[in-house]
Design brief:
This protein is an all-alpha fold and about 170 residues long. The protein contains 7 helices and no strands. Helix 2 crosses helix 4.
Length: about 170
């Protein structure tokens, strides 16, 4: 219990100097990040089960999953997309590029889950923070800072991924 108290105190001290609105915004971002991790982790297991146990082709699974995702978020699309497109035609290109990247990632993940164990595929996919770090450094340097702490955290994730893959192939 003392370790949890220490973690809470560290988190409180880390954000104590920031205005309340900024702290709330950052904490909301972290909470949604944890939720994304939970849902992506669940997605891996659901996809692996469906693709292997029910003999569903990976491309079909990914396509149907996307369709349900679009239906789920359609009300938000109706509200936000027209305004975004009026503000900037560049946003349309970014929507398309993001969709292509996301779709390609999910299709590749679906095929990898068909061929390999989910317990190995999931950590391998977790190298995405390294890719994000490189892209942020290359294209968004003025908006987001890449700190040594962040770099070390990404390298730890990468090291853990290597350990999982090597450990799985050795045993």
């Amino acid at each position: 219990m003392k370790l949890l108290d220490l973690a809470k105190a560290s988190a409180v001290n880390l954000y104590a100097h920031l205005p309340l609105a900024v702290r709330r915004q950052e904490m909301t971002g972290y909470i949604f990040g944890l939720m994304a991790g939970f849902f992506y982790g669940a997605w891996n297991v659901i996809a692996k089960t469906t693709i292997n146990d029910y003999q569903i082709p990976p491309i079909l699974f990914a396509t149907v999953a996307f369709c349900f995702g679009v239906l789920m978020f359609a009300p938000f699309l109706v509200m936000g997309v027209p305004k975004a497109l009026v503000n900037s035609r560049f946003s349309l290109a970014m929507f398309a590029l993001s969709g292509i990247a996301s779709g390609s990632g999910i299709i590749a993940l679906s095929f990898s889950l068909e061929k390999a164990d989910v317990t190995v595929v999931a950590p391998v996919v977790s190298v995405s923070p390294l890719i994000t770090l490189v892209i942020v450094r290359a294209f968004m340097e003025r908006l987001e800072k890449v700190t040594w702490t962040l770099l070390m955290g990404v390298l730890l994730v990468l090291g853990g991924t290597v350990m999982v893959v090597v450990g799985d192939t050795v045993l």
